[in-house]
Write a sequence for this structure.
């Protein structure tokens, strides 16, 4: 059996990048602020903002380079996008060099802190004093 070529080994990261670029182009061309995408079922049923509400608008704003608008739509989505790009870059480097991708494990206290932060974010954005972090 022969070892995979470098081109074959980076095919998966490049395919993921192509899919992400395709999604970004769609969000750039068809602005989520003016187009009708699928509504959030949680918001449609309750009238409350879920932790993901505004993420599509935030990612659309990122494609236009408007970081302030993206952060005001959903700051967690912006952070997740940064983490996703970093993990993708590590994945590509690992495949390019022929090494295994080694990511740090998320321990229990970190998981609890992230869930708590997301819960506080969700509660605050649904209160009168949290309108600055609610999607517009």
């Amino acid at each position: 059996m022969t070892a995979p070529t470098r081109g074959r080994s980076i095919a998966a990261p490049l395919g993921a990048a192509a899919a992400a670029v395709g999604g970004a182009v769609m969000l750039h061309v068809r602005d989520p602020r003016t187009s009708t995408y699928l509504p959030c079922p949680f918001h449609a049923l309750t009238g409350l903002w879920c932790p993901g509400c505004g993420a599509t608008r935030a990612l659309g704003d990122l494609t236009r380079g408007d970081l302030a608008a993206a952060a005001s739509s959903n700051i967690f989505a912006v952070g997740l996008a940064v983490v996703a790009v970093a993990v993708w870059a590590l994945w590509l480097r690992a495949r390019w060099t022929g090494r295994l991708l080694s990511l740090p494990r998320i321990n229990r206290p970190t998981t609890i802190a992230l869930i708590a932060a997301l819960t506080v974010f969700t509660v605050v954005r649904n209160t009168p004093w949290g309108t600055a972090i609610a999607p517009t």
Remarks:
- The mean pLDDT is 91.
